[in-house]
Design goal:
Layout: E1 7-18, E2 21-32, E3 36-40, H1 47-54, E4 62-67, E5 70-72, H2 77-82, E6 85-88, H3 100-104, E7 111-112, E8 115-116, H4 118-131, H5 147-159, E9 166-170, H6 178-193, E10 197-201, H7 205-211, E11 214-219, E12 222-228, H8 234-242, E13 262-272, E14 278-288, E15 292-297, H9 303-310, E16 318-323, E17 326-328, H10 333-339, E18 341-344, H11 348-352, H12 359-364, E19 372-373, E20 376-377, H13 379-392, H14 409-421, E21 427-431, H15 439-454, E22 458-462, H16 466-472, E23 475-480, E24 483-488, H17 495-503
Parallel strand pairs: 3-10, 3-11, 6-9, 9-10, 15-22, 15-23, 18-21, 21-22
Antiparallel strand pairs: 1-2, 1-4, 4-5, 7-8, 11-12, 13-14, 13-16, 16-17, 19-20, 23-24
Length: about 525
């Protein structure tokens, strides 16, 4: 290989074969020195697989890697780290029972004689967190932090690495607020200026155009195209990613909502906040049979809390709930499933999947009670229902007995949706169903939602992305600081109306200003 002084790492015809699938097929990839090297593609394109090979997490089935013109082979993550390669995973790899400084200095411990120098660890943690503009008590347990803060701890772990040459960031902004993303981008540019190369994976195309220097696109485990960001536009990325132009087009459904019977009504739902104030303040809305109702709002608007109250996770809530006209009081999730509710949580890894189970068992987990035959599970019926679910919602899987983590993010999300649908619900609650999946998988998830709504399933969807909620919902309830600030019918659903309603203020007595409803 001819040495290129601007390339810090060169991957030549990398291959990775898993049982039943070829995840990477002769992919060549360059990491340019001191640049943000963006790697994009649909779920299952091979992005994370390639990064695992570079980071020493897995070994290639074929191909060669070069650093500084010399062939390298990483037998494990320590070997890769010794060559200056760090990785921030899409799914956090932290220890919730350890504190902040213990997590940050894991595998980078400093010693004072025979003992760990925890004073130096705490001080070092304070310094790196100040750099990330996230000053926290280094003795705080990581399990007590919100997801965005945990993501910053994951980033901090890599920034303390002295000999860092390449930092791989796999979906680092999926749990961050806009302000936190801004800080992260500032740190990334500082790292570039110090000569550190960044490999950046994201499904947020606007972010790529803002922070990226060079883009490489994979599709179905193969290299498709690469270009400097300054020379391309978003349509070029989308076309190369999915093989055709794809965007969110609002699907007009032939349904007269006014003539549909009301299936769910929520009246004056209130949820107190610890320390005073309200997470939800007199939230009211209704849902009709076969309707796709959207809930939109900014971070902290109270969207997820609405679902948690409906599913019986907050017995301290007040207000009234009616199912087909009859009042009910939710006490726990199992009771709500029996009532005909199903929920797809925002965090599929922690709350939607069991990593130690295979694909099939993850799908059937929600109906094991129904599949019971004496003291055992009726495996024949279980297999039939799992196969039917895989077929109905088009889960791309070679074998249902493979580990759940062998699936791409988009197919994992379909498994969580399939698990909910298998309970035969009348109301499906979807919390950020497209989080962490690419535009192609999003389109497939939206198709599933529309297909089941056409069959009469009533669906409530939470989304923080404007274009998504506009494309999918028949009506949209907008929340701001725990208050309903707008209910938009089909003719009123515009970006301007949604943005205005989501930022609409309210007075200190809890009443709405003139922008609210």
């Amino acid at each position: 290989m001819a040495e290129n002084p601007n390339v810090v790492l060169h991957c030549e015809k990398m291959e990775k074969i898993y049982p039943g699938t070829k995840a990477l097929d002769e992919v060549s990839f360059d990491v340019l020195e001191g640049k943000v090297n963006v790697l994009i593609g649909e779920n299952g394109a091979g992005k994370s697989t390639l990064m695992k090979l570079i980071a020493g997490i897995e070994q290639p089935s074929g191909g060669t890697m070069y650093m500084d013109g010399k062939e390298v082979y990483f037998k494990d993550t320590n070997d890769a780290r010794n060559h200056g390669i760090g990785i921030i995973h899409q799914e956090l790899s932290l220890f919730p029972n350890l504190n902040i400084y213990q997590n940050i200095f894991m595998c980078h411990e400093q010693k004072k004689g025979l003992f760990l120098d925890d004073k130096a660890h705490a001080k070092g943690a304070e310094v790196v967190l100040k750099r990330l503009e996230h000053e926290m008590n280094p003795n705080t347990l990581v399990g007590e932090l919100r997801v965005g803060q945990q993501q910053m701890i994951e980033i901090a772990r890599n920034l303390i690495q002295n000999d860092l040459k390449i930092l791989i960031m796999d979906e680092p902004t999926s749990s961050l607020s806009a302000a936190e993303v801004k800080v992260l981008f500032k740190i990334m540019r500082e790292l570039n200026e110090a000569g550190i190369s960044i490999v950046y994976i994201s499904h947020r195309l606007e972010e790529i155009m803002e922070i990226g220097d060079h883009v490489t696109i994979l599709r179905d485990g193969k290299y498709v195209a690469d270009a400097d960001v300054k020379d391309i536009e978003l349509p070029w990325i989308v076309k190369n990613m999915v093989g055709s132009e794809k965007s969110y087009h609002r699907i007009s459904r032939d349904i007269d909502l006014d003539s549909q019977p009301e299936i769910l009504r929520i009246e004056n739902l209130c949820l107190p906040k610890k320390g005073g104030g309200w997470l939800l303040n007199n939230v009211s809305f209704n849902l009709r049979e076969g309707e796709i109702l959207g809930i939109y709002g900014l971070l902290g608007a109270g969207r997820t809390e609405v679902f948690e109250c409906i599913m019986g996770m907050h017995p301290e809530h007040t207000g009234k709930m009616y199912l087909r006209g009859e009042e009910f009081s939710p006490k726990n999730i199992a009771e709500q499933i029996d009532r005909g509710f199903a929920i797809v949580p925002e965090d599929r890894q922690r709350e939607g999947l069991v990593q130690s189970l295979d694909i099939g068992r993850n799908i059937s987990l929600s109906v094991l009670k129904r599949l019971k035959k004496a003291f055992f599970v009726d495996e024949k019926t279980e297999n039939e229902q799992v196969e039917s679910t895989i077929k109905d919602i088009h889960i791309k899987v070679a074998d249902k007995r493979l580990p759940i983590l062998s699936l791409s993010g988009g197919n994992q999300q379909k498994v969580v949706i399939g698990k909910g649908l298998l309970t035969d619900p009348s109301i499906l609650l979807l919390d950020e169903p497209s989080r962490g999946i690419d535009i192609g998988a999003k389109t497939e998830v939206f198709d599933i939602i529309h297909e089941y709504a056409q069959k009469g399933l009533s669906i409530i969807v939470i989304s923080s992305e404007l274009k998504e909620i506009m494309a999918i919902a028949d009506r949209i309830v907008v929340l701001s600081n725990g208050i309903v600030t707008g209910v938009l019918d089909e003719n009123d659903i515009t970006e301007d109306n949604l943005v205005l309603a989501s930022y609409a203020g309210h007075h200190t007595d809890g009443t709405m200003d003139e922008k609210g409803e």
